[in-house]
Amino acid sequence: MTEKIIETAYAKINLGLRILGKRKDGYHEVSMIMQSVGLSDEVIITEGNGIEISTNVEGLSCGKDNLAYKAAALLAEKYNITPNVHIVLNKSIFMAAGLAGGSSDAAAVLRGLNKYWKLGLYTDKLEAIGAELGSDVPFCICGGSAIAKGRGEVILPLPDMPENYVVLAKPKNLDVSTAWVYKNYDPGRVLNNPCIWQIAENLPHGGRAMAPFMGNALETVTIPAHPQIALLKMAMLKAGAYFAMMSGSGPTVFAFADNREIAEAIVEAVQDFNVETAITTTVRRKDI
């Protein structure tokens, strides 16, 4: 058996998030463009006793409610494996931030255990298993640039976006419940829906080409409840970002910058907002 597997779990942002309506199963039908960025967690798999989770983040549950634990348990159950693995989550992705940190960790566990247990599963099978864990997990299996449909679990890979500097800023001590945001979504409040096909068509040409068509329908819920997100966006634009938007249900805001110097100026400009920040870049798809 393989001694140690190390996987990189990349954060994601939404280049466009459009809600098409409410489904019979209670979820919302969405049309999104997802993009991986370089801010990442490290997931290490070694031999253990049962399913053991440990992490560098104080207060993060390492029990059965942890999505990484659920991923290991689900894969073991499906393939009749007695799981004896120790999974270390070295986290750098901001917590409860709209960046799919937990989903990306779960996807990394599925990829890693696929190798560790020598299951030989292909991307589509891992994505299907991931969909049982959460809507963002299938995208996080390979990441890169993709359209996500259904409740987010139907993944259509796109050509890779050219590398672009991205600044991430998450207000500290502000956690936003995704369930609350979707529950309070009102389509009548959305004035400018993103044009998903135009974003996809312009994606190979980079951020500036996509920017006129980008948008996030969930800003109409989260920003009225937390106005500092709008102020954060404005500060990033004023500091030189050519585009800024909330990621997912929030509260993290991402900004596109033309170069590292501008990215650093943006980080400097938002320090008074009491935020966690990171300068990173867009990341290409990683095939299994």
Largest sheet: 7 strands, mixed
From the spread of the alpha carbons, the general shape counts as globular
Please tell me the CATH architecture of the largest domain by its name: 2-Layer Sandwich
Order of helices and strands: EEEHEHHHEEEHHHEHHEEHE
> Which structural class should the secondary elements be placed in?
alpha+beta
Q: Work out the helicity level.
A: 25-40%
CATH topology of the largest domain: Ribosomal Protein S5, domain 2
Radius of gyration: 18 Å
* Average of the residue pLDDT scores: 94
Give the beta-strand count.
11
The total domain count is 2
Cα(first) to Cα(last) distance is: 19 Å
CATH structural class of the largest domain: Alpha Beta
Total helices: the number is 10
What amount of the residues lies in strands?
25-35%
Low-confidence stretches: none
